[in-house]
Amino acid sequence: xxxxxxxxxxxxxxxxxxxxxxxxxxxxxxxxxxxxxxxxxxxxxxxxxxxxxxxxxxxxxxxxxxxxxxxxxxxxxxxxxxxxxxxxxxxxxxxxxxxxxxxxxxxxxxxxxxxxxxxxxxxxxxxxxxxxxxxxxxxxxxxxxxxxxxxxxxxxxxxxxxxxxxxxxxxxx
Length: 173
Prior knowledge:
Radius of gyration: 20 Å
Structural class: mainly alpha
Shape: elongated
Number of helices: 6
Oligomer: single chain
Helix content: over 70%
């Protein structure tokens, strides 16, 4: 590998790591904000309408789902910047191929660890808030979740293409 190709590979991997870190921070800020909102909703429901247990349960499930999401984001999808200097991609291609393959795999499973728990909590909450008229908000939530799922699948495919282009076509598991 020429020096120019090595610098290009290092730059590409660095940009991907920065992008993943920005995503992690963005998702954590949004989740933290939603946790605060749903905590307020629970406190309000307990204070004003303690008999509305469905709203409290739905909000609680949303909060637990968001905590799960934050945990997965920082435990499974986090790549420290220090790994770029400790394990340069040109010298440790298998390690970086594994990182990228793992990122793509987790993004493909976003429906399981991210969307399903969040959808369940949101559905329960909408049932309590809108009673029989929750269909329109539910359809909006389904559309948003489908968009998030599709966006993550696109990102996973792009990561896999980049990984194959940068490190070869054989897959690391």
